[in-house]
């Protein structure tokens, strides 16, 4: 008789732009991808009985990678938008977010989005922040590959403000000890993050949604949430 084959776990190929703390970033020591999204997708993978493999790529490359079938899902603090939903499906929303603005700590003139008219603004390419900043009258928009580069440009004085997701802005400022920059004004938008999946892959979307539901019921979602956002 043939020896029984050990069943190999199926792989879930996950794409993410991994410089978006506290959602996805690389741990300096272990070099592992960590963060709220990373814990969540690993927990989802466990529920689904699959092995999670995380691949880092540019944010604007995630939807094309899904469409090409190079990855199965994208989790990347990605806002569910009507525009994106034409190209990919989204899981049930898993996090409420919104855009805010960051200015230098000693800036007392920029207080609201209205004040950004005619100013220089740094954003991450392909994001809702980039989209919204482009609507601001007479503003000069500088697009960077990732949020840390946008923050660096603010610090260097090359721009007047960064428009980016509020929880990421707050995390950045807390990490820097509030020395360089501050969040000002009310959030500009109200957004929800979803896991993006190819439209051809409805089975995966169903499984991901079931897993999210299970994690909300069994307290695991709450545990992960508190780990990253609990005060
Ligand atoms: N929520 C924003 C968007 O969907 C920004 C996401 C950026 N994510 C990242 N991992 N860099 O456009």
Order of neighbouring strands in the sheet with most strands: 4-1-5-14-6
First and last CA, distance:
59 Å
Structural class: alpha/beta
Show unreliable segments.
Answer: none
State the order of secondary-structure elements, H for helix, E for strand: EEEHEHEHEEEEHEHEHEEEHH
Helix content: 25-40%
Q: Under the CATH scheme, which class of the largest domain? A: Alpha Beta
Q: Which geometry do the CA atoms define?
A: elongated
Number of helices: 8
Tell me, rounded to a whole number, the average pLDDT. 96
- The CATH architecture of the largest domain can be given as 3-Layer(aba) Sandwich
Question: What's the domain count?
Answer: 2
Radius of gyration: 19 Å
Walk me through what this model shows.
With 231 residues, the protein is an alpha/beta fold. The protein has 2 domains: 11-95 and 192-229, D-Maltodextrin-Binding Protein, domain 2; 99-184, Periplasmic binding protein-like II (D-Maltodextrin-Binding Protein, domain 2, 3-Layer(aba) Sandwich), CATH 3.40.190. It is built from 8 helices and 14 strands. A 5-stranded mixed beta sheet has the order 4-1-5-14-6. A 5-stranded mixed beta sheet has the order 10-9-11-8-12. Helix 4 (128-133) links the parallel strand 9 and strand 10 (140-144). Helix 1 crosses helix 7. The longest helix is centred in the last third of the chain and has 16 residues, at 202-217. The N and C termini lie far apart (59 Å). The structure holds arginine.
Topology:
Blueprint lengths: L9 E7 L8 E2 L6 E2 L1 H13 L1 E7 L5 H6 L5 E2 L7 H4 L2 E3 L4 E3 L1 E6 L15 E5 L3 H6 L6 E5 L2 H10 L4 E5 H10 L5 E4 L6 E3 L2 E3 L3 H16 L2 H10 L2
Parallel strand pairs: 1-4, 1-5, 9-10, 9-11
Antiparallel strand pairs: 2-3, 5-14, 6-14, 7-13, 8-11, 8-12
Helix pairs in contact: 1-7, 1-8
Arginine binds next to loops.
């Amino acid at each position: 008789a043939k020896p029984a084959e050990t069943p190999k776990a199926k792989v879930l190929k996950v794409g993410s732009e991994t410089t978006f703390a506290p959602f996805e970033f690389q741990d300096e020591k272990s070099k592992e991808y960590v963060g709220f999204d990373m814990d969540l997708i690993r927990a989802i993978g466990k529920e689904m009985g699959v092995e999670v493999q995380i691949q880092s790529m540019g944010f604007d490359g995630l939807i094309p990678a899904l469409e090409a079938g190079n990855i199965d899902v994208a989790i990347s603090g990605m806002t569910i938008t009507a525009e994106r939903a034409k190209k990919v499906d989204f899981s049930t929303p898993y996090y409420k977010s919104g855009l805010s603005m960051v200015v230098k700590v000693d800036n007392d003139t920029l207080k609201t989005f209205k004040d950004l008219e005619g100013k220089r603004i740094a954003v991450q390419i392909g994001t809702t922040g980039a989209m919204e900043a482009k609507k601001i009258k007479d503003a000069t928009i500088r697009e960077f590959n990732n949020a840390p580069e946008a923050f660096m440009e603010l610090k260097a004085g090359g721009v007047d403000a960064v428009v980016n997701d509020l929880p990421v802005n707050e995390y950045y400022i807390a990490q820097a000890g509030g020395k360089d920059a501050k969040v000002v004004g009310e959030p500009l938008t109200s957004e929800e993050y979803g896991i993006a999946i190819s439209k051809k892959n409805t089975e995966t979307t169903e499984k991901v949604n079931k897993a999210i539901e299970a994690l909300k019921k069994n307290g695991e979602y709450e545990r992960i949430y508190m780990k990253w956002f609990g005060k």
